[in-house]
Amino acid sequence: MTEYARLIVDGKEYNLPVIEGTVGDKAIDIRSLRQESGFITFDPGFGNTGSCKSAITFMDGEKGILRYRGIPIEELAEHSSFVETAFLLIAGRLPSRAELTTISVNLNDLSLLHENMKQFYQNFPSRTHPMGILSAMVNAMRSFHPELVDSKEDLQRTFLRLISKVRTMAAMAYKVSIGQNPVYPNPNYSYCANFLHMMFDTPVVPYRFDKDVSDALNVFWVLHADHEQNCSTTAVRVVGSGKVNIYAAMSSGIAALWGPLHGGANQAVIYMLEEIQSKGLKISDVIKRAKDKKNPFKLMGFGHRVYKAYDPRAKIMKTICDKILKKTKIKDSLLSIAMELEEEALGDPFFQEKNLYPNVDFYSGIVLRAIGIPTNMFTVMFAIGRLPGWIAHWQEDFFDPEMKISRPRQVYTGETELKYLPIDQR
Ligand code: SDX
What is the pLDDT averaged over residues 54-74? Predict the structure, then answer.
């Protein structure tokens, strides 16, 4: 039996249907509101607005719960591979062994770039940020791979092509930036190990496979694979709603992720920790700065639009941190600064009252440093991980008969009607 929300405004009463999700989350369906009442709702940043129905990822921000297609992130981080998790997000179920083998073969077959794409890298200025390169290269894929979504096979191949080639593009951006020739994918390596091979192999120092390092990267990408309607996924859905090709939609996700308030935070956390270290800043002074409303400084890697509890991914990232530092015998002084910062912030009433906890970005940079990834590649690492989530949401939106082109309304605060003034009267 449908429940209704009663709205009384301007002396009139409107009954708006309530829709309920599978775990009891409820929403007031306002699709008829403007037509019936002339009113729209107002919610800058959409913090209280459901933009779609989705069956991909569930988050409970108050309880710190994250599930991909119903499976808790803790179980996937412990048991799954990034490729298997990508299949789960996109297909909606875990793959069979045979399917997993087929996917791995296809990912290998699709891992090369068109040789002409390599020319692009020579023409970017040397200091170009790799997120700008990645966004441009993914967008350029449309020109090299015109077959898109005409058949289910085309679609699956396009998804695998994106997931496979994004590694090659990212590693190539790094190699070119350090003046080395790009390294071709090696068919003997798994998804994660192949990326590390393309990043770190050189003709004089061959890449030495280390299972613990590859495993750490695998968990890093599983943790980043999806996060329901975050900023970059919303960008993919909005751009995709205009029915542009999937590569352009993915490229918009990369651009949206780049910002320091979103995926760029992992890079910003390291810069913050390095500044504390290099300037010998007192942790208490940094905390004070973060609490000062007049100061735009925010504690990078802390706080979240949805999580008002400890980000479950940050907990897992912290254990990966400890493991990889122990294995690589790296003593990263930034880790002790991060832990001191976390302890002081979590003990401070300001952070407690505002429910500000470490998010996925707080420890992820330390893990990437231990793997040997340069800081300016951190957000690229986030993008590679998030790609399967963007694909799953693009697909869900593209084939949802209820979805329309995204086109929000506004509350207009500009001039009322004015006369045009000829230039000699201005
Ligand atoms: C990601 O959405 C997702 O799911 C994103 C993501 C994903 O996987 O896709 O999880 C990945 O982007 C994680 C977030 C990474 N960003 C950072 O770490 C940057 C630092 N964090 C903040 O800038 C901030 O917390 C945001 C941007 C993440 C959220 O901003 P909101 O929505 O304004 O946070 P809020 O409403 O909870 O803030 C409540 C109060 C505000 O102050 P008042 O207006 O009440 O006075 O807390 C303050 C905020 O100004 N606040 C902070 C703070 N975060 C929020 N103050 C100091 N330091 C911070 N980090």
Answer: 97
Pairing of strands 57-60, 26-28: unpaired
- Residue numbers annotated as active site: 304, 361
Q: What are the residue ranges spanned by the domains of the chain?
A: 4-60, 73-262+375-394, 265-370
63 CA to centre of ligand 1 in angstroms? 17
167 C-beta closer than 6 A to ligand 1: no
Ligand 1 near 361 CB (within 6 A)? yes
pLDDT in tens, 15-47: 999 999 999 999 999 999 999 999 999 999 999
- Return d(Cα 371, Cα 365) in angstroms, integer: 10
The answer to whether 240 and 398 are in contact (CB under 8 A) is yes
Q: Is the confidence at residue 147, as pLDDT, over 90? A: no
CA of 305 to the centre of ligand 1 (A): 6
Distance CA 328, CA 308 (A): 33
Helix (H) or strand (E) holding 7: strand 3-9
Q: What CATH number was assigned to the domain covering residues 265-370?
A: 1.10.230.10
Q: With H, G, I as helix, E, B as strand and everything else as coil, classify residue 206.
A: coil
Q: Which has the minimum average pLDDT: 139-153, 184-198, 263-277, 377-391?
A: 139-153
Q: Is 358 in the pocket of ligand 1 (CB under 6 A)?
A: no
